[in-house]
Write a sequence for this structure.
């Protein structure tokens, strides 16, 4: 109370949110009490909870604190509200068991294997097989700054549907970034998507029919295989060499299979780290013209480059080449946002497909991405990130060589090392052994359509600072060598 004996405005809110005990608010304390009674089965499923006034008196808190706690427990599904009657314990899920958490060890090693193991792994799992940077390597402060700015935005951005084409400001920014790689494109030729994966999915819906043939690199990003199989197309592979696809094999596949589409990485190739040469790029485009082939060029690793590699889209002028990308690798995988840059006549149909499948654009994500990319701190972040990756690349390569694991080439930039394991060791077996110790690896054959990468492994150097990874890998290699002896 104040000097006049009155309760100040907002006192109840302060009581509800003020600290209790070891950093726990009063609301949290009430919630913990109810959860504890449910766990101890003094409150069973269907039982009625104490009245708001009764619990407030027992716990010596305000009624508004109890109401807030009850409402939050309702939102979590722990209790139910029955208007006019009170609050009741909800039917509870099966008891928590650590054995039910984490990836399945017996899962088949297929194109979903690394994704499922990486995404479902516990927070403390080690993930040198995943395809993204550790959270601490990403521009978290810039993202927080952008979020604070977004909170002051108008109501429409916070609550309304976005344009299916995507935020105009970000499309202009993407166009300027593409121009840095000599890809001349108007913002009116750019469609924002929820991710790079959605970009490929939309293009498959537009350009393919079930039974069509699609060409991929061998090896290539494993999710290309999974996505294309979902579209019920025939997939053929072409060997990928240090300077691009094997041109002789490329020409032979085009003549024999007449694929409608070729999906590849530009810039830094995944998983090999290879870079396309101008000569190979020119020959690929000549063959594409000869065999009426459309190319989807995935440029997701553009910001990792120290020196820009040739882009098929730059040589082609977005005639037969469609360029896609996203911001998940260098900015945030949580802010899902990608793009398609293509010829104008395809953009209308792609926009209709986007409306049919997701209805509208994710305006809030797009505005967050635009704000971070426009901030001067992002350029400094990239400079530090490239230097950090270069150091990690050298350190990890040295550590792997000590174990007899040799990189098949030395990438100019990026985060992947594509390596050959020692002897005749099966990479899938090594990955299974490592998973038993909480380490997620990426065995070669998940990337290879021909299953010709049995002895290869892709390592993400940014995820290998923990020495336990090398210890687990060494142990698995020794066990595998002993079994084959």
């Amino acid at each position: 109370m104040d000097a006049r004996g009155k309760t100040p405005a907002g006192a109840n809110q302060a009581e509800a949110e003020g600290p209790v005990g070891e950093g726990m608010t009063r609301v949290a304390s009430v919630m913990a009490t109810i959860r504890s009674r449910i766990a101890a089965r003094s409150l069973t499923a269907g039982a009625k909870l104490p009245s708001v006034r009764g619990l407030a008196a027992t716990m010596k808190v305000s009624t508004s604190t109890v109401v807030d706690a009850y409402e939050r427990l309702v939102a979590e599904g722990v209790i139910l509200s029955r208007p006019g009657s009170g609050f009741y314990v909800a039917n509870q899920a099966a008891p928590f068991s650590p054995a039910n958490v984490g990836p399945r060890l017996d899962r088949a090693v297929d194109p979903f294997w690394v994704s499922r193991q990486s995404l479902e792994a516990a927070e403390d799992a080690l993930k040198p097989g995943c395809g993204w940077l550790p959270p601490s390597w990403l521009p978290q402060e810039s993202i927080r700054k952008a979020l604070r700015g977004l909170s002051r935005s108008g109501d429409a951005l916070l609550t309304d549907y976005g344009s299916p084409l995507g935020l105009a400001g970000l499309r202009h920014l993407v166009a300027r970034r593409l121009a840095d790689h000599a890809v001349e494109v108007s913002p009116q030729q750019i469609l924002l998507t929820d991710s790079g994966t959605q970009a490929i999915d939309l293009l498959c819906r537009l350009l393919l029919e079930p039974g069509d043939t699609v060409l991929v690199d061998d090896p290539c990003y494993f999710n290309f295989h999974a996505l294309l199989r979902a579209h019920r197309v025939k997939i053929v592979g072409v060997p990928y060499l240090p300077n691009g696809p094997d041109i002789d094999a490329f020409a032979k596949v085009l003549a024999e299979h007449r694929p409608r589409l070729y999906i590849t990485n530009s810039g830094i190739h995944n998983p090999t780290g290879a870079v396309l040469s101008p000569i190979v790029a020119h020959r690929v485009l000549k063959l594409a013209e000869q065999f009426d082939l459309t190319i989807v060029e995935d440029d997701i690793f553009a910001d990792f480059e120290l020196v820009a590699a040739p882009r098929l889209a730059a040589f082609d002028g977005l005639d037969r080449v469609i360029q896609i990308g996203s911001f998940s690798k260098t900015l945030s995988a949580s802010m899902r946002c990608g793009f398609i840059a293509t010829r104008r006549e395809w953009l209308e149909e792609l926009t209709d497909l986007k409306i049919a499948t997701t209805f509208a654009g994710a305006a809030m994500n797009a505005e967050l991405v635009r704000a971070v990319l426009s901030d001067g701190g992002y350029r400094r972040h990239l400079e530090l990130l490239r230097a950090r990756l270069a150091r990690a690349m050298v350190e990890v390569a040295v550590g792997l060589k000590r174990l007899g694991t040799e990189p098949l080439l030395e990438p100019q930039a990026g985060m992947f090392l594509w390596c050959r394991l020692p002897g005749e060791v099966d990479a899938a077996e090594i990955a299974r052994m490592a998973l038993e110790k909480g380490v997620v690896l990426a065995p070669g054959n998940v990337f290879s359509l021909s299953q010709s990468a049995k002895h290869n492994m892709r390592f993400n150097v940014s995820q290998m600072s923990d020495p336990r990874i090398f210890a687990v890998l060494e142990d698995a290699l020794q066990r595998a060598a002993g079994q084959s002896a």
Q: What stands out?
A: The first helix runs from residue 11 to 17. The chain is about 45% helix and 15% strand.
